[in-house]
Specification:
This protein is of the alpha/beta class and 289 residues long. The protein contains eleven helices and eight strands. It starts with 6 loop residues before the first strand and ends with a helix.
């Protein structure tokens, strides 16, 4: 369990890092932050989202923290630990929020000090905005939270990481291997972003807003995308994402060919399967509420 006396460091005051900081501060934790953007640190201090923060992490500052949350892009998270791990206190727990795990967890664990632990985590939440100015105390309320431990992690560290998910308000805490996480996220998140981007890019949208209904709005909600972050996530999880894209293409081609052949029974079959699976999905979602 995470004790209220533990000091928590947020590395990266973007939307997710800022929301972690705001929630943890509201819960009574002493929260510090590191961010290269001075304005972000000053805004978080002014709003009381953090107790203190810096743009230039020193050993004197970093050694005070018991728990470190890396709210950075995957490659930046790896590089930050490589650069600053010597400044961290013995026994520190490091976790993250990144949307890929194999390329982060195994790299960090390969060079991490023996007296520190890294446990990967992924809160399944986000919004179509960015930055600490859009941080929200309810960002993770009811969200799913995936922890990706390996055999290098102790039961105590895994439980602490899961406890962090509960503290920030997540509803369903799951444990997956990094490999299974990347497969699931490749399908559930990255593929859906690819589809939304493709929808918005395949037709001039200048006047579509004048004619559209809810279906197009719902399907393309996530098409307003951070290209720096998502392109890195896609490439970091390339093999899994390509597999999920092939699954989607297979069914899309099936629908196309059924339409081309005026095969109403084939269309009805896949629609019935879709409806059946969505009903199961809805029931599982409602059980967790």
């Amino acid at each position: 369990m995470i004790d209220k006396n533990e000091k928590i460091l947020i590395v990266g005051l973007g939307l997710l890092g800022g929301s972690y900081a705001e929630i943890l501060t509201e819960k009574g934790f002493e929260v510090g932050a590191v961010d290269i953007n001075k304005d972000s640190v000053e805004f978080a201090l002014k709003k009381g989202i953090i107790a203190h923060g810096t743009t230039e992490p020193s050993e004197d500052y970093l050694k005070e923290f018991d728990l470190v949350v890396l709210a950075l892009y995957p490659s930046a998270a790896v590089e930050w630990v490589k650069k600053y791990q010597s400044f961290l206190k013995s026994g520190v727990l490091i976790t993250d929020v990144t949307g890929v795990k194999c390329s982060v967890v195994y790299k960090i664990q390969s060079f991490l000090r023996d007296d520190a632990e890294f446990v990967g985590a992924h809160p399944m939440a986000g919004r179509e905005v960015s930055g600490v100015r859009n941080a929200a105390g309810d960002m993770f309320l009811g969200a799913n939270y995936i922890v990706t431990p390996t055999d290098k992690n102790s039961p105590e560290a895994i439980e602490r990481c899961e406890d962090l998910g509960r503290i920030i308000g997540c509803r369903c805490i799951s444990r997956l291997t990094p490999e299974l996480h990347d497969e699931m996220v490749g399908f559930l998140s990255q593929l859906t972003h690819c589809i939304a981007v493709a929808l918005m890019a395949c037709k001039d949208s200048q006047h579509l807003a004048d004619y559209t209904g809810d279906s197009f709005r719902d399907l393309t909600r996530i098409a307003k995308i951070n290209e720096e972050m998502w392109s890195e996530l896609f490439i970091a999880n390339k093999e899994q994402l390509l597999e999920q894209m092939e699954l989607f293409l297979d069914k899309f081609i099936y629908i196309r060919d059924a339409l081309r052949n005026s095969d109403s029974e084939a269309l009805k079959d896949i629609m019935r399967l879709s409806t059946k699976r969505r009903k199961i999905f809805d029931r599982q979602e409602n059980k967790q509420l």
